[in-house]
Protein 1
Amino acid sequence: MHRVVTGEPGPPVPARLPDGSPAWLVSRHRDVRHVLSDARFRRSQLYAPDAPALSAVPDLVNNPDLMFNQDGEDHLRLRATLRRAFTPRAVARWQPWITEIVEQCLDSLEHHDPPVDIVAAYTLPLPVMVISRLMGLDDEVRSKLRHWSEHAFSDGSHDGQEVESVLAEFAEFGAGLLSRRRREPGDDLISSVVRAADEEGGIPEAQLVQLVCGLVVGGHDSTMTMLGNSLLYLLGERPECWARLGADESAAEALAERMLHLVPLGDDRGTARHAAEDVEVGGVLIPAGSVVLADCFLANRDPELFPAGPFDDLFAPLEGPGLAFGAGPHYCLGAWLARLELRLGLHRLAARFPGLRLAEPMDEVSWRLGTTSRSPMRLTVTW
């Protein structure tokens, strides 16, 4: 199920990686924040030649050139190319045209005769159109986004050679996009990355290519996943919230934050770090060289900070800082954009379709498989 989180937060405990190698699992909120914020816990060393495999097949997330897998100055140089683009103020300036895209998608939805698969009609095209507008992508590229995403975020069920081939094609696209924006810059995000990278200097081209690829697929996959999972939960289990969601945008903002906090994107056990030296976390000594899995979603259920009934009032402000977007130097740069898309996407849908409801039982919903994120492959609704 899309919102099942197993286990209880507790002190760091021994765990295993997919290949059976030892690791440590950290799950209490304060401990997870410690691991994600302490510079002694790093990403780059996870990809040393003798490091255990974090994935059974190649994927984008475990590419050593990805910004998320850099540390220190290398990470800061890459992050500087995007930092100004994703500030809350910058994202707020995008709200008018994002709202236009939301309304355009809703206009299209209105022309369908129910029942309708709302994934195909709304939760997928909305974030694809937003990231395409932001990055200046054409229709031909849009048609390939899901194919690239499914392989970039493969859960290991794809053939390894197939994933390598698709990711090579994807990287070729990223390199070509950078080259075109250097020759013909515009007002899109990739052009601003190129300009910032030239000003910063010293950034390897392979890292810029992976940055572009990460933006292309990460910029729509997580929003699509959250929209689909949130709609399934709201329509299937909390239909009493639908009217308020559509009538009150400030209430929609609080609900979107709670959905991000409570509904996992997938079943990933935790974001990994490598301990560069001995570090005590939550009263337990983590030896140097250990791989540490920081379970953000289990930490988001920590009763020390969050109440035992986190789903009781979906419009209540969070009691503390959530970890849906991580913490520390790798805090997700796209957090404010994701919040805005989820809030507007849910609020305007509820306002335009106050009678929206599921047209199939929840236990018959078909799930998207093969990737590390989990959401409905199809979700049939009516009104």
Note: The mean pLDDT is 91.
Protein 2
Amino acid sequence: MPGIRWDFRAGLPDVRLFPYEAWRRIMSGLLRPSGLADPASAADPAGLPALREAVARHVGLSRSVRASGADIVVTSGVQQALDLIVRVLLEPGDVVAVEDPGYPPVRMLLAAAGMRVRGVPVDAEGLRVDALPGEARAVYVTPSHQFPLGMPMSLPRRRALLDWARRRDVVIVEDDYDTEYRYGGRPVEPLQSLDEDGRVLYTGTFSKIMRPVLRLGFLVAPPSLHHAFRMARYVSSWHAELPAQAALARFIDEGLLARHIRRSRREYRARHERVAERVAGLPGDRLDLVPSEAGLHLSAVFRDGADDAAVTARALGAGVGLFALSEFAVTGPPGAGLVFGYGAVTPPEIDEGMR
């Protein structure tokens, strides 16, 4: 956005941390005449087999996700994964429950597809299962790092959600968008690894780890839905960009992704701590930080219910970009607060921008 000097908007990684030389080396090799097989023979709509196997290994080690390459569908991001889920499993008019507050693009996609979107409040343990609408056919959640507040869903709440979905024959869409960046606390077990009925559809993205412009993500589907998702992927866009898929497979297999995550995690941890310290030190004692030990943003709520939209507008006038918490409200009364992203700001910029 023009006019932003200090960019605290959530969801933006630091592209300066990306290992460009290694990526350029891999891409250069693939773009030679002998680098890729005939695209017509390689274009499985579920994605290149090498990448699907590499993703399955990666999420198994880094996220405790139970999956083989056959379970992976490569997508252009979480948005496309959700679009495929809507095409395969839902009908116009179906009720889909989402977290409130929650991620706006998901609500926009569901509404555009004719779904009836219902916001469900969250508390310190995550989504309130007791507030789920009985007519829901699907539930979209971010249990590892609730967006935008930041808390993880507790294990009892996870089990309660799975039990609720089992009894009502509901599908759960688990969006695990930035779980690699965890800075403390116990590892969070994904719903997918707790699921015994094959009703959790697990989605992830490489946009936060690498670069958003690569537009590569994935969907983990149970065996009963493999064919349906492959066909839905075929009729919607056939396949994602093949050279980028092949490059990411090699990037994972050579250990470069794991190395990049370790390096960037150290950097983001330092920013996480710095933002937390600066928010706590803001004058007036008006903001309460929401405890969070993961991701690329922190949220804080106003004690006095201030007009957060007015605050962010004034901040933008001063060159500071950030989101108001009320922007993420679904159907409930919007909470007032600020969301501080630290992926795109260096520590010195954090100090300047907070000042």
Note: The two ends are 21 Å apart (CA to CA).
